[in-house]
Amino acid sequence: MKAIWHLLRRELRLALRQGADAAMAVLFFVLCVVMFPFGIGPEPGILARIAPGVILVAALLASLLSLDRLFQADHEDGSLELLALSPPGLEAVAVAKLAAHWLVTGLPLILASPLLALFLNLPAEGFPILLLALAITTPLLSLIGGVGAALTLGARRGGVLLPLLVMPLYIPALIFAAAAIDAALMGHSARPHLLLLGGLLAGAATLAPFAVAAALRTALD
Amino acid sequence: MRAAPSPTAAASPGALLEARALTCLRGARLVFTQLEFSLAAGGALLLVGHNGSGKSSLLRLLAGLSRPFAGGLFWQNSPIAEDMEAHRARLRYAGHQDAVKPALTALENLCVWAGLDGLPDATGRAQAALAQVELSHIADMPGRYLSAGQKKRVNLARLALAPAAHAPLWLLDEPATALDRDSVARLAALMARHRGDGGMVVLSTHSAIDLPGAQVLDVSLFSADADDADGDDAADGEAA
User: What ipTM is given for this predicted complex?
Assistant: First the structure.
C-alpha cells in the first residue's frame, strides 16, 4: 500500500512537471463539445437533447488521447523494466498508473463538464446525474484504456491500434451513462443505470491491474 | 586447474545462484542452450561473447524479465520462478537504458527507486548513493540536462542504495559504456565493496574493468550455432 502511494506520487509529480498532458485532455474535451453547436446550429432544444451523449463521447475521446503515453515513456527509457523488477511488482505499478491517469485526465474532465452542460443547455435536473455518471465512467475509461495501452505497448502503430481496440469496450459504459442522464431528464430514476455502471467499475477495478500487469510482462519479455 | 576461470559445474557447494541447463529462445532463434554456471557469495561472473551471443538475454533471464525456454535458475537450490517476489527484492538490474526521467532531478530520480525497496530513509540513502558516484554537485539538476555518462552514473548509483545483505545480486548489462576512466574505476570499487560484503555481480562488458577473481563465462560457447564463426552482429536485440 505504501509502495502504491509512493508510485502514485511519482506519476503525479511527472505529470505535473511535464504538464501538458492534463491540460491537453481538458482543452480537447472543451473544444470537442464546443464544435457541436457550430455544426448543428444553436437550436436549444436539439442541443439539450444531445448534450449528455456529446459530453460523454467527448470525455471518452479526451481520455483516449493521453492513453498511448501511459506506459510508453517508461518503456522507452527503461524505467518500466526497473519498475517491473522493483519489489512491489507490476500489479502495484498498474494500480498507481491507472489511478494517476484518472487523477490527471479524468478528474479535470468531471470538473469541466458543468460548464459544458450549461453551454449545451442541459436542463438543471440533469446536472447532478451527469456529474455522478462521469464520476463513475471516467475511472472506467482509465481502467479499460489502461489495459488497451498495456496490450498495444511496443506494437507498431500502437497509437492507432489502441482506439480501435479500446473504443468497442467503452460502449457499455457509454450506454449506461447516457441512459442514466436521460432517465433523470425524463423524471425517472437514474439509479439502476448508475448501479450497472458501478458494477462495471467494480469489475474493471478488480481485474484491470492484473490484466495490465500481465500485458506489460509480455511486452517486456 | 582450480584457478582456471571457467564455469564451474552445477550444484557445487556454497553456490547461491545457479543456472542449470538454461536454454534461451528469442522469437524463433535459439540464443543459447545448456548454459550452466554457479555463483557463490562474493562471486562475480563476467559474461563475454560476440554481439548477439545472448549476454543481455542471459541477464534478462537472471532478472526474471523473461522466462527460460528450458532449464532453470536456482537460488540456494530452490527454483527462482517459485518466488519471484523474493527474487525481485534481492536483485538490482541495470540494463542498456538509464531510466533517468528528464523531468526529475538526479536526486528525485534516485529517491523514486530508494522508496520502492522498503528500507527507511529513502532520501538519505539516495544522497549517500549519489555521493558514491561523485554526483552530489548535480543532485538538483533535472535529468534532461545530464550527459550520457552522468545518466549512466545516476543509474549505477541505484546499486548503492541498499546494502549487500538486502540486495545481494547485481545484474549489470554493459555498465561501463559512456563512463569515463575514473567512473569505471569507481564502479569497480563499488563492485569490489559489494562483493566484500557478500554480494554477487553478474556483468557483461566489452571494455576492460577490474574484477578480481571473476569467473568468465563465454556465452557464445553455448550458442546453438557455435561453429558459425560469422555469427557476429547477427541482430543484437531480439530476432524480428
Answer: 0.85
